[in-house]
Fold this protein.
Amino acid sequence: MKIGVAGATGRVGRHVVDVLEGRGHDVVRMSRSSGVDVITGRGLAEALAGAECVIDVASGPSPDQKAATEFFTTEARNLQEAGKRAGVQRMVVVSIIGIDRFTAGYMAAKVAHERAMLSGPIPISILRAAQFHEFVAQLVDWGRQGDVSYLPKMRTQLVAARTVAEALADLATDPRSAPAPGSAAAPILEIAGPRAENLVDAATRFARRRGDRVRIEGVSNPADPDSALYETGALLPGPNATLAGPTFQEWLDSGSAA
Ligand SMILES: NC(=O)c1ccc[n+]([C@@H]2O[C@H](COP(=O)([O-])OP(=O)(O)OC[C@H]3O[C@@H](n4cnc5c(N)ncnc54)[C@H](OP(=O)(O)O)[C@@H]3O)[C@@H](O)[C@H]2O)c1
């Protein structure tokens, strides 16, 4: 099957490409570094020609609400319109567990992303994932000020990007998972790791494994109206979620963090 992957070089996108190619599919990489821009539309029609399905794992450069909303809504419109013209049958979108309780920031941008995707003509499957094991490194680097890294106080059921990629590939290639054309309510599925983690604790273990003596400090942002949600478990999976390893500790022990 020919499958387009938007965001093919990203934290989860590179695993999506690897998993699909390992299963013998014809993968079209879509990212600016491979000549396809989902915002300007450069290379999009050529990339989607003959594709049956698109997996959307792209993300813009900024986590700021306004910039991220602009990115995701533009990307969704372009993928839907170019996909329709190219005869794409369905799309699989990665999102984030718990977003519909959030009102601000990147989470609100992801709500806009889901809505924009669902409002297009091509049927959509949404997989909401927990924060990736690989994302912890990014958070430590973003929060660093000298010898301290300030991270949001957060409970999260961290999951490996590879595990999410396998679930996205399953959704893209199993016709039984596709929503019926024209169905109003696309099924929203969840995937998370096997156990809930305290982000500060996980980040401290990650930094030590990397040989980094940085002190990790958990902070609440009083300016964020959703601050309490991060701390009280709104990002944790619901009872019907798929839970799949490795745990964060198993992932660290496997050397994958390097
Ligand atoms: N990170 C997490 O913990 C997490 C958890 C749950 C869900 N998610 C969701 O998973 C998705 C991917 O996240 P990620 O962390 O894997 O992202 P990432 O590592 O930042 O990768 C972003 C990808 O998007 C591509 N991209 C950016 N601008 C583009 C453009 N204009 N046209 C085409 N491609 C573009 C990038 O490639 P180029 O720079 O080469 O264009 C890259 O391949 C996002 O929707 C995110 O919300 C992430």
The pocket of NAP is lined by residues 7-13, 30-33, 36-39, 57-60, 94, 96, 110, 129, 131-132, 135 (CB under 6 Å). The first helix runs from residue 13 to 22.
